[in-house]
Design a protein that fits this description.
alpha+beta; 4-stranded mixed β-sheet; disordered N terminus; binds fe (ii) ion
């Protein structure tokens, strides 16, 4: 990164405004009592996130990049970092340990004013980092809010689901060939996306569709535990939606943990695709070149997949054929992240960002696995080919499913 601060272009400033509106709208869904609750035991109380988004922007852009002195250092520190303890090991703070909502909102207002005044001096890379950090939280906040009782949320108007049609599972052959992983130098990416490199991938077969709730139901009926997103009521399985329980959407992707996904694959005598196999299925063509998106070069829109905040919950696995890859594999981007069999590890040439050294490095521990694709709540900018997500193998709250592969 060059030390010179380029004049920040208007487009980036507008994206920052749009991202702030996105996270503000999320907090508007909460009833006042909800802000001090902790809907997921392994994460902070929601009040933390109210301060965290602004504290992050302040710490990265104003304090670290531009050397601006703090006006409320105790909040800068309090709201600096999230937590990711092993499942079952929760923090033990109390609501009274946190400041009032009005104190946090006053801190936030002051930061936005100061950041807006500083933005033209800020290094562009850091502004990208702040922007994507906020949009990632727009997604992970949805996971947290998903686990709040329905009476603590204010639902928006929702479209009704169409009745289910039966999807026929199919396997698609992907021939051996090259896959390019990682981001090109000079383009924005997080540290774990570098360096760009090519790998040879042997031929394999992969599911045309993600595994559906109907398919996973067979596994549950054979004795497997039910996923976190399912609830049993009077002997029937319901889906735990964002704003209401619904009958189990049979042709929507099942959302599960890595452990559940890999057990299902084993039960079928199959496996999960590796990260490199996902790249081949998503971006390769029979001509030997690679695309930027599974469907080609056109920018993402709602016809290509269920991503970028159009919907709160999953759709049927065959509902967006315009997003199919060159080999005909559906929904590799959107409608739920996909677990890969690849532990999260650095690419050759990895260097941690000096201004955020723990962003990826803290998770190279063989306990987190790479997820590719996107969920309904993943922002369009993170649909780039090189983007990698990662979670613990038994973390059940992510909008993440899987498809099977055969080697
Ligand atoms: Fe964060």
């Amino acid at each position: 990164m060059s030390a010179a601060a380029p004049l920040l272009n208007q487009a980036l400033r507008e994206r920052m405004d749009a991202a702030r509106r996105r996270t503000d709208e999320l907090f508007d869904l909460l009833k006042p009592d909800a802000i001090y609750t902790r809907p997921i035991a392994e994460r902070h109380r929601l009040i933390f996130y109210l301060g965290h988004l602004e504290a992050f922007d302040w710490n990265q852009i104003a304090r670290n990049a531009l050397g601006v002195p703090s006006f409320q250092p105790e909040f800068d520190k309090l709201f600096e970092f999230g937590i990711d303890p092993p499942v079952g090991k929760a923090a033990e703070d109390r609501p009274s340990d946190w400041p009032s909502t009005s104190e946090v909102l006053a801190y936030n207002r002051r930061i936005r004013e100061r950041i807006d005044a500083l933005l033209d001096r800020a290094p562009e890379q850091i502004v990208h980092v702040a922007l994507e950090h906020r949009l990632m939280h727009a997604e992970t906040l949805a996971y947290l809010f998903h686990n709040l009782p329905y009476d603590q949320k204010i639902p928006p108007a929702l479209a009704l689901r169409k009745p289910d049609r039966q999807v026929q599972p199919a396997m698609i052959e992907i021939p051996r060939g090259e896959a390019t992983l990682g981001q090109r130098t000079g383009e924005f990416g997080w540290d774990n996306e570098f360096a760009e490199h090519s790998v040879q991938v042997p031929g394999f077969a992969i599911g045309k569709y993600k595994v559906t709730n109907a398919q996973y139901l067979d596994f549950v009926r054979d004795g497997a535990p039910a996923p976190h997103f399912w609830i049993e009521r009077h002997g029937e399985w319901l889906y735990r939606g964002m704003f209401a329980e619904t009958p189990l959407p049979l042709n929507a992707p099942v959302y599960v943990t890595y452990q559940e996904a890999s057990s299902y694959a084993r039960w079928k005598g199959l496996s999960l695709p590796a990260e490199t196999q996902f790249h081949r299925a998503a971006y390769a063509t029979s001509r030997g070149d690679e695309r930027h998106y599974p469907w080609g070069e056109a920018p993402p829109d709602a016809s290509r997949g269920n991503f970028d905040f159009y919907h709160w919950d999953p759709m049927d696995v065959d509902s967006t054929p315009a997003g199919d890859s060159a080999f005909g594999v559906s929904q590799l981007l959107g409608n739920g992240w996909e677990w890969t069999s690849t532990p999260f590890a650095p690419f050759p040439g990895f260097e941690a960002f000096a201004f955020y050294p723990g962003y990826s490095k803290n998770f190279f521990d063989q306990e987190h696995y790479v997820l590719k694709g996107a969920s309904p709540r993943t922002a369009a900018c993170m649909l780039r080919r090189s983007f990698r997500n990662w979670f613990r193998a038994n973390y059940p709250y992510v909008y993440a499913g899987f498809r099977v592969a055969e080697n």
